[in-house]
C-alpha cells in the first residue's frame, strides 16, 4: 500500500530570500519576514526576534501581500480634468505634478502661509510632516489624532506623563487583575493578544468594560456591558468605594503625586485654586518631620497628605483633601450612578472590592535596589498587581478627556502605575508636561513658523489666538472652544474652511485621510463642501492636493493626486521622535525599506514632500548655498538632526570612538545596519531602572545617556491639573486672556482640575426620548485602515457589515434573521441589514467601521457587497451639534481637547422593508484605475 501513496513535498521551498521589515497593516508595527521568489513577494510571516510581536502575526499582517498587489493601487500622478467628484483625471509626470503643486504653494508661502491647510492621516511620520509644515510656515497642520484618541493621550500626559497604547503597557509578567475599558480589537492587537494569553495561562483575571462583547471582551472572565458615555461615572464610583474603604496607597500618593501639594484656598486671591510654590517656583508640601512647608523634591522631605497650612487667616489645604471631599460625596456612590451606567450598585462594589483585594493583599515585591529623586535609597520595588488598558471607546466622547483622567486617577490611587504588576511606561515616556513644547502659531510670510504646531498648553497664554483674539488655526485648535487640543481637530478642517470660519484658505493638502467617506463626520455634507462653488463659479475650497496609495473615495475630490507607494516599496521611519515601537523593558525604533521596487510611477509620500520642499527651497531642507539638504526620505532619515546628535533613528550612530546608540553623528551606513538587524533597534533598560521610571534616578540617567532627555526629568503625577484651573480662573474674570462670554460657563464647568463626569453633549442637544438608542462603531480585528476592505483575503472575513441589535430591541421590533431597519438620528437616516447580538448593552446598537464602500472606489465592482450591503454610521453623525438657536457653530467635540465625539451618537430604530441595497446609495464615482478583475490570481515563482 505504501508504494502506491503519492510523493508529497512536505517542505517546499518558500522563497529565494527573506527580507525583514515592519508591517503597516495596523498600528502595531510588528516585525515581518517577507519571503521573496523571483523578485516578488511570496509569503509574509512574523519576525521571531522582533520586540513587538516576537513572531506572532495576525490575519492583517499575512494579508499584506494582497495589499501590495491590490488592483486599486494608483499608477501615476493625476491632474483633474473633469468636475470635482467626477473621477476624471489625466496621468501626468512627476515633474509636472511637482511643478503644479509648487506653483500653487509657493505664492501662498510668500504672501500668507496660513492659506495652506496641511493635514495627514495615519502616516506614522508626524515628526517629519510637522517639520515640513513648520518650515513652510503654515499654522494649519495636524494628523489624525484629533478624531482618534487625543483624549486618551492628552489626559494621560497631563496626569502622569504618558497614557495607554504607544505610551505604555501592562506588566504582563506580574499583573494579577487586568481591566480594559473601551478597547476594540484593532489597536495593539498582537501584543494585547499575547499579553492576555500570558496572564490567563497563569490564572490572572480579565475584566472587560465595553457596551459590546467582542474580541478581547469576549475572552474576558467578566464582562461589564456599560451604557456608552458613562465610563467616567462608573470609574469615579469605584474611586468612591476605594476611598470609603481606605484602600488607597497613601505612601505612593505622598511620595510620587501632587496629592500632598498645597492648594491656595483664599477665594479673594487671583491665584485661588492654584498650587502653592516657594520663591524658586517649587511646589510646596508640609514636611511630616518639621510640620513646615517645604519644596516637594527637597532631599529627605516626607510629604504629609493630611496637614494644612494657615497663613494670613487662611487655611490652605493639600490636593488630597479636595480629592477626598469630592469623591466621597454621595454623588458618586454606586447607588446614585447605577441606573445611568447600567451596572448594579452591588456589582460596582464587588469590582471595587476585587481591585482593592488584589492590589493590597497580593502585592509584589522585587529585590531591585533603586534611588529616588529625593536621594532616598530603596532596597525593593513594591508593586500593586492591578493593571488597566483603554482606548478609543472611552476617548471618543465629549466627556472623554475627563473620563480618561478619571481612569488615570483610579490607577494612581491604587499605586499601580510604574510598579511591578501595574501599568508601565514605554520609552521615550514617561515625559512630564514641562518637557513638551507649547503650540506655536506665529505666521511670517516667506518664513518658517515660530515653533512646533502641536504641544501642551500651560495656560491661556499659550492659546493659538491672533492679536484680535480670533483663532490662528483653521481647525480652531488651542482656542477657548478646545484649549488643550494637543493633536488638532482634523474633522473640523473642511467644515471650517468651507464656512470661512475663522478664515478662508486657498489649498487643502491631505495625505491618506479619507475625508469624503469613512474618516468624515457628516459624509454627505463634506462631499457637498468639497464640490460647492461660490457666486463666481469657483470652488469654495479653491485647490485640493491629495496623496494616497489607492483609489479611495477621497481621490475623486482632489485637483492633484500624488500617488504613494505601498508599505513594502518605500522607506519609513518609526522613530523615538514620533510613534516608536518601544516596550516597557526597552527603547526601540524601526524602519521600513523597499523590499520590492514599485512597478508604477509612484513615490513615497515623504520623498514627494522632500522633492516639493527642494523645488520651493524651504528652510530646513535647503543648505546655505541653495542646494538641497536631502535627496529623498532615506537621505533625510540618515542625515537629519533634530538637535546635535539626535536624529530620527537612535541605533548605529557615529560616536567619537565608533558606532554608538542614542546620541551620535549621522552614519551613512545606518539604514544598512537596521536592515541587517531585522529592521529594528532595541536597547534594554537595566533591571534596577525598569520600574518607578518617573522617580528612579537610575532610569533618568539611562534616558539622558540614550538621548531621550537632555537632563534628568523626575516629576510627580498631577492628580490635580493646575493648567485646567488656570483656564477656570480666566473664565472667572482673572488675567489678560479671558474667554468670550458665551464660553465662560462651559470653561468653568468642564475644565475642572480634578476629574469630573458630565453627560455627553448630544444628550442635551437632542430629545433622548425620541432618540433613546446609543449607536457605536468598532474596527474589526481583521481590518484597521479603511483600505483593508479592498484586500482580497480580508474581504472574505468582512465583506459586509450588519447593524448588531441587542435582544431587548430585537424582540420589541420583532426582528427576524434577514430583516432590515431604518435608523435615524437628528442628522440623517440610513437603511441597513440587522443581526441579533445578545452580548450587547440593551440600549446600544453597533456595527463594524469602514466596511461600507462607495461604488466605483477601490477598484471594486459596483455590485460588491461592501457597496451594496455594507454601510457607514457616518451618515448619521455630524461635525456640528444640532443648533441651539444662538447662531453659533458648536463642534461635536470634547470641549477640552476638541476630540471628535464619534460615540455620543443617539438614534432611533424601526423595522422596515428590505431595499435593493443599503441606503443612502450614492451614485458610483469614476475611478482612475478602473475596476479590478473578477478573479485576482497569480503565481509567484516556478
Quick rundown:
This protein has 942 residues and is an alpha/beta fold. Helices cover 24% and strands 16% of the residues.
Roughly how many Å apart are the termini? 31 Å
Largest sheet: 7 strands, mixed
Mean pLDDT comes to 95
Uncertain runs: none
Number of strands: 36
**How would you describe the oligomerization state of the chains in this entry?**
single chain
Strand order within the widest beta sheet: 5-4-25-24-23-6-7
- Total helical elements: 24
The fraction of residues assigned to DSSP E strands is: 15-25%
Morphology: globular
Structural class: alpha/beta
Which percent bin holds the helix content?
10-25%
Radius of gyration, taken over Cα atoms and rounded to an integer in Å: 27 Å
Question: Describe it for me?
Answer:
- This protein is of the alpha/beta class and 942 residues long.
- It has 24 helices and 36 strands.
- The strands form 11 sheets. It has a 7-stranded mixed sheet, with helices on one face. Strands 32-34-33-36-31-35 form a 6-stranded mixed sheet.
- The longest helix is centred in the first third of the chain and has 18 residues.
- This is Molybdopterin oxidoreductase family protein.
- Keywords: 4Fe-4S, Iron, Iron-sulfur, Metal-binding, Oxidoreductase.
- Belongs to the prokaryotic molybdopterin-containing oxidoreductase family.
- It is found in: Cell envelope.
List keywords for this structure.
942 residues, alpha/beta, 7-stranded mixed sheet, 6-stranded mixed sheet, 24 helices, 36 strands, 24% helix, iron-sulfur, Mopterin_OxRdtase_4Fe-4S_dom, metal-binding, 4Fe-4S, oxidoreductase
Amino acid at each position: 500500500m505504501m508504494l502506491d501513496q503519492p510523493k508529497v513535498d512536505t517542505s517546499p521551498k518558500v522563497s529565494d530570500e527573506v527580507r525583514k521589515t515592519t508591517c503597516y497593516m495596523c498600528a502595531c508595527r510588528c516585525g515581518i519576514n517577507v519571503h521573496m521568489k523571483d523578485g516578488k513577494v511570496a509569503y509574509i510571516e512574523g519576525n521571531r526576534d522582533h520586540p513587538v510581536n516576537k513572531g506572532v502575526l495576525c490575519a492583517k499582517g499575512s494579508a499584506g501581500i494582497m495589499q501590495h498587489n491590490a488592483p486599486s493601487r494608483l499608477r501615476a500622478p493625476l491632474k483633474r480634468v473633469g468636475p470635482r467628484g467626477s473621477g476624471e483625471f489625466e496621468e501626468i509626470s512627476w515633474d509636472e505634478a511637482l511643478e503644479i503643486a509648487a506653483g500653487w504653494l509657493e505664492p501662498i508661502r510668500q504672501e500668507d502661509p496660513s492659506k495652506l491647510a496641511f493635514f495627514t492621516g495615519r502616516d506614522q511620520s508626524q515628526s517629519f510632516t510637522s517639520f515640513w509644515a513648520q518650515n513652510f510656515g503654515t499654522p494649519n497642520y495636524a494628523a489624525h489624532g484629533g478624531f482618534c484618541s487625543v483624549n486618551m493621550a492628552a489626559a494621560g500626559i497631563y496626569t502622569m506623563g504618558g497614557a495607554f497604547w504607544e505610551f505604555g503597557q501592562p506588566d504582563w509578567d506580574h499583573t494579577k487583575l487586568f481591566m480594559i475599558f473601551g478597547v476594540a480589537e484593532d489597536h495593539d492587537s498582537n501584543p494585547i493578544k499575547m499579553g492576555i494569553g500570558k496572564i490567563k495561562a497563569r490564572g490572572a483575571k480579565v475584566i472587560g468594560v465595553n457596551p459590546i462583547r467582542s474580541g478581547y471582551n469576549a475572552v474576558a472572565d467578566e464582562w461589564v456591558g456599560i451604557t456608552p458615555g458613562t465610563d467616567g461615572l462608573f470609574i469615579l464610583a469605584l474611586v468612591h468605594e476605594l476611598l470609603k474603604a481606605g484602600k488607597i496607597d497613601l505612601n505612593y500618593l505622598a511620595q510620587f503625586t501632587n496629592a500632598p501639594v498645597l492648594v491656595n484656598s483664599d477665594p479673594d486671591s487671583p491665584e485661588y485654586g492654584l498650587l502653592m510654590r516657594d520663591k524658586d517656583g517649587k511646589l510646596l508640601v508640609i514636611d511630616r518631620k518639621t510640620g513646615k512647608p517645604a519644596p516637594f523634591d527637597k532631599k529627605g522631605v516626607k510629604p504629609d497628605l493630611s496637614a494644612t497650612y494657615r497663613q494670613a487667616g487662611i487655611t490652605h489645604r493639600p490636593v488630597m483633601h479636595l480629592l477626598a471631599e469630592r469623591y466621597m460625596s454621595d454623588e458618586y456612590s454606586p447607588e446614585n450612578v447605577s441606573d445611568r451606567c447600567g451596572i448594579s450598585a452591588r456589582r460596582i462594589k464587588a469590582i471595587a472590592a476585587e481591585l482593592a483585594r488584589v492590589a493590597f493583599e497580593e502585592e509584589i515585591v522585587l529585590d531591585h535596589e533603586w534611588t529616588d529623586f529625593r536621594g532616598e535609597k530603596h532596597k525593593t520595588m513594591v508593586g500593586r498587581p492591578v493593571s488597566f488598558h483603554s482606548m478609543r471607546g472611552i476617548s471618543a466622547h465629549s466627556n472623554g478627556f475627563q473620563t480618561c483622567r478619571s481612569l488615570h486617577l483610579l490607577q494612581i490611587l491604587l499605586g499601580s502605575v510604574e510598579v511591578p504588576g501595574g501599568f508601565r511606561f514605554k520609552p521615550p515616556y514617561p515625559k512630564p508636561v514641562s518637557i513638551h513644547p507649547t503650540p506655536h502659531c506665529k505666521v511670517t510670510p516667506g518664513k518658517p513658523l515660530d515653533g512646533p504646531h502641536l504641544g501642551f498648553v500651560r495656560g491661556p497664554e499659550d492659546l493659538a489666538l491672533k492679536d484680535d483674539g480670533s483663532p490662528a488655526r483653521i481647525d480652531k485648535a488651542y482656542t477657548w472652544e478646545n484649549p488643550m487640543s494637543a493633536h488638532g481637530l482634523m474633522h473640523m478642517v473642511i467644515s471650517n474652511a468651507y464656512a470661512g470660519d475663522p478664515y478662508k484658505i486657498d489649498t487643502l493638502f491631505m495625505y491618506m485621510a479619507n475625508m469624503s467617506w469613512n474618516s468624515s463626520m457628516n459624509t454627505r455634507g463634506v462631499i457637498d463642501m468639497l464640490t460647492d462653488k461660490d457666486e463666481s463659479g469657483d470652488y469654495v475650497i479653491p485647490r485640493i492636493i491629495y496623496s494616497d496609495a489607492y483609489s479611495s473615495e477621497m481621490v475623486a475630490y482632489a485637483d492633484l493626486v500624488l500617488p504613494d507607494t505601498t508599505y513594502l516599496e518605500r522607506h519609513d521611519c518609526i522613530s523615538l521622535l514620533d510613534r516608536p515601537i518601544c516596550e516597557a523593558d526597552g527603547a526601540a525604533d524601526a524602519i521600513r525599506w523597499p523590499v520590492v521596487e514599485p512597478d508604477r510611477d509612484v513615490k513615497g509620500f515623504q520623498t514627494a514632500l522632500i522633492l516639493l520642499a527642494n523645488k520651493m527651497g524651504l528652510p530646513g531642507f535647503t543648505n546655505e548655498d541653495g542646494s538641497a539638504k536631502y535627496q529623498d526620505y532615506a537621505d533625510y532619515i540618515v542625515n537629519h538632526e533634530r538637535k546635535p546628535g539626535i536624529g530620527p533613528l537612535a541605533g548605529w550612530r557615529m560616536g567619537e570612538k565608533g558606532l554608538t546608540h542614542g546620541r551620535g553623528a549621522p552614519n551613512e551606513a545606518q539604514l544598512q545596519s537596521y536592515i541587517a538587524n531585522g529592521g529594528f533597534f532595541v536597547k534594554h533598560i537595566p533591571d534596577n531602572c525598569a520600574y518607578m521610571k518617573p522617580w528612579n534616578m537610575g532610569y533618568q540617567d539611562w534616558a539622558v545617556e540614550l538621548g531621550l532627555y537632555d537632563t534628568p526629568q523626575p516629576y510627580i503625577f498631577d492628580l490635580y491639573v493646575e493648567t485646567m484651573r488656570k483656564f477656570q480662573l480666566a473664565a472667572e474674570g482673572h488675567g489678560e486672556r479671558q474667554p468670550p462670554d458665551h464660553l465662560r460657563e462651559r470653561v468653568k464647568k468642564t475644565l475642572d482640575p480634578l476629574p469630573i463626569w458630565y453627560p455627553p453633549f448630544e444628550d442635551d442637544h437632542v430629545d433622548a426620548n425620541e432618540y433613546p438608542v446609543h449607536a457605536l462603531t468598532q474596527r474589526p480585528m481583521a481590518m484597521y485602515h479603511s483600505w483593508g476592505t479592498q484586500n482580497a483575503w480580508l474581504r472574505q472575513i468582512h465583506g459586509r457589515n450588519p447593524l448588531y441589535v441587542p435582544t431587548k430591541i430585537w424582540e420589541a421590533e420583532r426582528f427576524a434573521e434577514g430583516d432590515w431597519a431604518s435608523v435615524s438620528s437628528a442628522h440623517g437616516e440610513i437603511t441597513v441589514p440587522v443581526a441579533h447580538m445578545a452580548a450587547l448593552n440593551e440600549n446600544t446598537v453597533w456595527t463594524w467601521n469602514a466596511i461600507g464602500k462607495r461604488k466605483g472606489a477601490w477598484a471594486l465592482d459596483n455590485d460588491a457587497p461592501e457597496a451594496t450591503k455594507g454601510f457607514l454610521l457616518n451618515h448619521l453623525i455630524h461635525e456640528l451639534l444640532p443648533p441651539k438657536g444662538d447662531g453659533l457653530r458648536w463642534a461635536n467635540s470634547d470641549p477640552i481637547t476638541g476630540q471628535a465625539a464619534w460615540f455620543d451618537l443617539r438614534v432611533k430604530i424601526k423595522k422596515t422593508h428590505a431595499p435593493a441595497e443599503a441606503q443612502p446609495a450614492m451614485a458610483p464615482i469614476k475611478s482612475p484605475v478602473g475596476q479590478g478583475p473578477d478573479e485576482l490570481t497569480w503565481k509567484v515563482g516556478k
